[in-house]
Amino acid sequence: STATIATGILNLWLHAPEETAAQHAALTAEHGPRFLCGIGISHRMVVEKDHPPSAYDRPVATTAAYLDAQSAAGAQVLMLFDSWGGVLTPYDYREYSLQYMERVVRALTRTRDGRHVPVIVFTKGGRQLEALADIGADCVGLDWTTDIGRARKRVGDKVALQGNLDPALLYASS
Predict the structure, then answer these.
(1) Euclidean distance between the first and the last CA atom of the chain, given in angstroms as a whole number
(2) What are the tens digits of pLDDT across the range 38-87?
(3) 34 with 106: CB under 8 angstroms?
(4) 62-99: b or e for each residue (b if 16 or more CB lie within 10 Å)?
(5) Of 93, 116, 84, 119, nearest in space to 104 by CA
(6) pTM
(7) Which DSSP category does 53 fall into?
């Protein structure tokens, strides 16, 4: 069977957590345990650097709780991504994205009903693959701009790699 993927995004800036939870519950009731959608974090966090690190405790805890709820509802794989992370400097990526992604990954329940729940992490651009491979996830997602062979050499056997499909191929004729 096809794995159900629950996608979590490490920021809920546009919605109060309660409002987002209500939207999530409605989507899950209508479509089953498939997706948790939101907005990527690092761009906003870099722009608004005056927030203390503790300001991100609630979004981290909420994201982990939502992903755990997806897993409890039957999601077979969890995915956490930051679509803006690839445009950050290495310092800003570690400071405003990676550490929070790692906190979410470490907070997740990784065994459910006797089975391992794999976690995929993704940051667009592939510039920080080594750091991303070290945060405790099972798999690192690659976008189409990242050479999968070079990515494997960079991360070794620490994690599985997935993705790397050029979306233009979806429009190609056979």
Answers:
(1) 26
(2) 334 544 554 555 666 677 777 788 888 888 888 887 888 888 888 777 87
(3) no
(4) bbbbbbbbbbeeebbbbbbbbbbbbebeeebbebbbbe
(5) 119
(6) 0.76
(7) G
128's tokens: 């920080």
Cβ–Cβ < 8 Å for 10, 98: no
Burial of 113 (0-12, 13-18, 19+ CB in 10 A): exposed
Contact by Cβ (8 Å): 137, 116: no
Amino acid 85 reads G
The sign of the CA dihedral 25, 29, 34, 40 is negative
Tokens linked to 114: 């006797």
Question: Hunting for tokens 């790692």 — which residue is that?
Answer: 102
- Taking 50 as the pLDDT cut, the residues of the chain under it are 1-17, 34-40, 42-43, 46
Give me the residue label for tokens 């993704």: 122
CA-only gyration radius of the chain, Å: 16
Residue with tokens 């693959």: 129
What is the distance between the alpha carbons of residues 110 and 117, in angstroms, rounded to a whole number?
5
